[in-house]
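Pilot study result, target chain (704 residues):
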Amino acid sequence: MFWLLPLLLLADPAAVESPRITSDLIFPLNAQHNHAPGIVECQNGDLFVSWYRGSGERRADDVAVYGAWLPKGETQWTEPFVLADTPGFPDCNTALFLDDQQRLWLFYPTILANSWESCLTNFKVSSQFAQPGLPKWDREGLILLKPDDFGEQGRQRLDEELKQIKQPLTDKQQQEIEQARVKLGDKLFQRLGWQPRCKPTQLPSGRMLLPLYSDTFSISIMAISDDRGQTWRASQPLLGFGNIQPTVLRRNDGTLVAYMRENGYSKRVRVCESKDNGETWGHVGASDLPNPGSGLDGLRLASGAWALVYNDTTSGRRSLVVSLSFDEGRTWPKTRHLENQTQGQFHYPAITQGKDGTLHVVYSHFVEQGKSMKHAAFNEAWVKAGDELSQATIKAAVGKSLPLLEKGAKGSMTERKQCFTCHNQGLPILALTTARSRGFEIDEEHIQSQLKLTADFLAKNKTRYLEGKGQGGAADMAGYALWALELGGWKPDETTAAVAEYFLLFQKDRDHWEPVSHRPPTEHSPFTTNFVSLQSLKAFGTDSLRDRATARSEQVRQWLLKAEPQDTEDRVFRLRALQVAGASDDEVRRATTDLLRTQRDDGGWAQLADLPSDAYATGSALVALHQAGGIATEAAAYQKGLSYLVSTQHADGSWHVTTRSKPIQTYFESGYPHGKDQFISIAAAGWSTTALALALPKPSSETK
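Predicted structure:
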């Protein structure tokens, strides 16, 4: 199918530019402590990095700031050289920044008394800098802050934070808290001890925000300059008592979002927002992103996406990732590892983007043999591609889902007695039989009981089917039921023949079938109704019905070609219905393209354009693309979808999708999680599990 390649290019913008990455150590492994880098790309394309080096950190008086250059087009970094050194005092965390006047800024703290709370932040700024040597500094000095007294506010916020801690505090912790209460009212500690970690953010107005933090209180603050660094003043502090080392990104509506290292108990990246250009800040919360108490850095990319580099663990710094957000930090659907080792520390990243779109990350690289700075250069396509999903990962996701699918199907059968449901019988049967075909052990007795329930449900209405009247739910319900029987290998019988006759009698005066229920997404789309009806005729239509079924199929095909799909359910089942109706390759290709076009940057699909991606829409789209559209499970679009499903699966193996349907029947608990959302969620799990299982190989005959 030669037309697949342009489809994949259309569906996956990352395919236009192939994913690429290179990485190297900036200098050979060194016995001294090398840590906390910064990075910029200069106007001519040269890269410049900074970090500190010495026999320790704050307690070692030989610590100085170092730098190195990577000339554009070359692969060898220059020899490290001293960039700043305050004799007799440690100079530590570095941050580099190019402002809107293309001036180079270096920020770093000098530690006065070998304790973090005794530091002062330095700056150096240069308009004349080029490799291979030291920039010519135009100006340098200290950033001295005089924040408004936040003692009382700080003590109140500290009490609020303490109420959230469930475990008892040790005597040492109690003592530290009491000391902090005293220091919160002391002007010296409010003004001393602020130090940098991440680069400044410059707003469209020209305002510069330099993120700073205090280890005295484990809080953050912004140094604000409205005269391009001539003078600095303090914002109100970000009071979370466990939120340090912020990086600040700006949304299109002007909201500033600070992401911060965890220095408390949440084990999550801390987050806080400002609605007034950084003057004041709201409540410091915790994001869904893990953090082990390690630095991070963020960047708004030229594409509009946000990138965040962080250690994605709650303990240890052996794993370092880049995550992408396509909704300005509300979700982070794409993640890829820069490091994922069993030993070592890979941490304190700094990120920038070059003029050619390349992302440059530099980070501390600690292994048993020594320490260095490591530089990784990659494109956005590399991150979007995500970590390659292994068969083990996919298999594990399927394995986690199956028990809940079986539980939900059994629970529905018990509670609803002889009533078939599309969500708790039809789609779980699709998933279970697909998983069985990939070698998973399935409760065969359970499958057979589900099929018998379905057949008995239809048999009760056999006379009504022959009269063209059917049952509640009309063609949707009957079609899903016959599809479930087909998937389970049910043999044609008098009941299935009666239901096939029903499809030829029901709404025979129309050129297609229409649903009679409005229970989105499963029972509201005419495309769904037409697919399950056509599939039923194909699977269970008798020889005596063949001519009428063929004519009806052609009639529906013509309607399918004229009808305009409005949402993902429409596009999914239009594609499936066209394939069953015997549409031409070109007709199927256009429907496939239409569905591929609506894949989101996060890899998923949404039920409606104004809703977020979810597992129901994504799973159903992937299954349709593969089974009806001919898209290989190895294709980039399919793999992106699988990554979305794996990343959104809950720890218990379920997926949670919010219902859009109003309840029309008595509520019951089937055993699938998520309360009133359980029915759409188990349907989503049916599709998602099927999509994942389809990506696994079928077992060989020797292993069956």
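One observation from the pilot: The first helix runs from residue 4 to 11. A full batch analysis is planned for the follow-on phase.
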